[in-house]
Every structure is written in structure tokens, then in C-alpha cells.
Please model this.
Amino acid sequence: MQKELANKFSQFQKQSKFGSIVFFFETVRKNIYNFIYVFLPALQGYFLLSLAIFALVLVGIGIFSFINYYYFTYKFDFNKSAFIIQKGFFTKTKLSIPFEKIQQINFNQNLIHKIFSLYEVQMDTAGSDNTEVDIKAVSKEIADDLKVISVKIKKQRVIKTTVEEDNNNSLNINILTLIKIGLTSRYFETFGLILGTIALGFQFLEDLNIDYTENVEKIISTTNFGLIFTLVVLLIIIIAILVINLISTILKYFNFTAIKSSNNLEISYGLIQTKSIILSPKKVQQFQIIQNYLQKTLDILEIKINQASSTKIVKDNSRSKIIIPGFTKNEKNDLFKYIFNKKIQEEIQMKPHVRKLIFSLIFTSIIPSLIFLLIFILFEILSLKYILISCLSYLILTSFVNWRYYKNNSLIIAKDFIVYKSGFWDIKSTIIETFKIQSIILSQPVWHKKRNLGDIIFSTAGGFIKAKTYNFSDLKKIVNKSIYSVEISNKKWM
Model:
């Protein structure tokens, strides 16, 4: 460790002098919606009282933020090889984290941070729920020093480089690729968001005692105009989905750059909120490739990287996951080779038994269709004509979805990897290195024994793979082979 850095961080120090402001806005951001949507409606007609209570809450948040800032100190104890923090006013807490437990240090920057030229520093650890560190506000100088320290902690060499210096050591996502990503991804999530917003809008109109139903019924009652109205609404929703996806993608992943060094991958991105992550390839537990038909046509794909981290982080799957929204196939291959230093050599490809499709059709298509048909007829919800059309449409749609899921499902056993493919529209390939498997669960439901079928789960420190309704004898062979690979491997991933 460089002597000047050791001296600089050997004593307890506070965050930036603007740290209390960051604490304040962060607390307001997390709680303001609860105050507005839950508390204020109960005080309708009491404007001055509401305003006074709102002001008192803000003052309370301000005091709370200053206390959190003032009584939070940290240092690096290089003699004990540990990072130490002290925090708390009413309850004093001292936390010591050994260097070897620090998996990575992330650097984030939201709008407030950018205004004051600050960074948020997050330290992720492995094997614990309560040793995660979040330093809300440090200067750029301190952040740069912490980047150096984070690499030194891992006994890795820092290579300072730029995109212009060596294009071979960097991977970038340009604005054209971001546009392609925005127009070809997250349709279903955005559709759900739009429907939720529309529902809230209708609820708001009802709360204001505005009767909108009569006018809507008049529009729909006119056959020709009603059809035009429906098509216009659908068109507006589709355009809204595309626009929302495009804007959110550009804002989130603007200027995405991945710089390769000898032992690290430094990733940075974001327009309003800038994030910087130092990724250690050996900590990668899962490598996921996601691509739909449109993205395949445009030669782009999404990559998700799951890392080893604490139990808490694995559960919420947020800070342990790195998303690369749009690489080409060649860029994906370069990244894969850099992380794993090898290629996937396919040996065995397995498909689930057709019973998987049959069971899915029975429980998600046929039985629900019959239940809907019975309910509609008994309660006379619709005319018989529309009942049959509705149930048949549901049956056809869900059957197609189930068939697509079955068609795209496969388990690949390679020399050093296990690959599981699945999906309906977005086809996801989850890849794990065999020697990183922590546990394997092999099960056989009673109804599958006669057909010699079963299920298998591969668990790693970054998530799991679950494959259902495969040949049970073949799964046994995979288990034995995988266990043998783990036992003979002398590689370390922690």
C-alpha cells in the first residue's frame, strides 16, 4: 500500500462537509411519497395545519440527517488489515470489516452528488448480512483514492487508461446502440407500469367525483367509432412504451464504458445518476445472455453478471448484479473470454420431456379456460358468443406461450460450464462455471417416477439454475460429473 494513502486514511475522518445535505435529500426521497399519499389526504381542508406539519417533518429530517452525517466516521487500519467505521448518536456502533471480506467497492453519483461534486461509496462483502457499508458523500479526490485502495486490497495492479489510449482494452455503448436497446426491450414491464398509471388516474377521477364512465360508454357504443377509439388507445400505449423505454435507457446507461485492466473490469455509466463499478472476474458466479428476436435482428444483446456477495444482496439481487444493456455478439464473446479465459465447448444438450409441455397446458391453459367458461355461463357475465370467443382466445394465447417456453428450454453440459436456456420472448441463457457450484439438489416427484423424470437445482453464491422435467438417469450422471469437477478443482472464487 502506498505510504501516503496509508497515512491519509489511518485516522478517523468524516464525510464531505456537504454530506448532511446528501443525507437530507436521500431521506426525503425515501419518505416523501409516504407523507404525500398517506398523510396529507387525511388532512384535506386543513391546508395551514398540513403545511405546518410538513415543515416540522422537514426540520426533523434535517436534524436526523445532520446527526447521521456528524457521527459517521471511517478509516482504514492497515496494521490490522481492516476497514473500520463508527456511527450512531444514541446507539454507538463500531464495525470492523477485514480486507479479505471486501468483494468490491462501487461508486455512484446521483443529481445531488453531481451538484456538489461528490460520490457515494458502497462496499459489498461476502458471507454476511450486516457488514454492508454505505458512505453517502465523499469528494472526487477521496473517491479516486478509495478506487486505488480497493484494487490494492485485492492485491491487484491499477492500470489507468482511457478509451482514446487503447481501444482494445475498452468496450463502449454508443448512442445508436442505446436507441436500439430502448426500442427493443422491457415491453412487458413498461406495459404494466402504464396500466398501473391509468388505473391510478381513474381512481383519482373517482376521488374527485368526476363521472367519466358515461362519456366512455357513449364512445364505445358507436361500433365504428369505438373500434377507431380502441385502435388509437392501443397505438398511444405502444408509442408510450417505446418512448418511456428509450428515455429511461438513455438516462440510465448513457456513456457506458467498460475498461479492462490486467485483473479488473471497471464499468461506468449514467447521465443523471453516474455509477462506477470495479468488477473482479473471478468473483463472477453467473453470466446471463438475454436476447429477443428484434435484438437478434439488430445484432444486440443484454448481459447480466451476478457476483458473489452477502446473503442479503443475493436475495434482493440488486447490488450484486451488473447489467450491460447492449453488446454485439463479438463484444459479448470478448467479454466472456476476458472473464472466464475460455470458450464454451458444448458436449451434451438436453431437452425437457414433452410432459413438461403437457402439464403446463393442462394447468395454465385448459383448466383455467374451463373455469372461466363455467363462471361466465353461471353468472351470465357475457353472451354465449363472447364467452366462447374469450375462452378460446385465452386458450390459444396461453397454449402458444407454453409452447414457446418449452421450445426454448434446454440444459447444456459443457466441459467447464453449465448452461440453462429459457424464455418466451426474451430468451435467457444462464451460464455458470462448474467448479463454482456450492450445492446440487436432485428431486423426483411421484408423478414422474414411472417416466424416469426429475428436476435439478444448481446453486452458486450468485444465484441458482433450476431445470425441470428432464431424464432422471441423465441428471444423475450430471450430478456425479459436476461433483467430481468441484472436488478436483483447485481454483478459488472467493
Remarks:
- The chain has three domains: 3-153, 280-351+409-488, 354-398.
- The two ends are 21 Å apart (CA to CA).
- The chain has a mean pLDDT of 77.
- The longest helix spans residues 223-253.
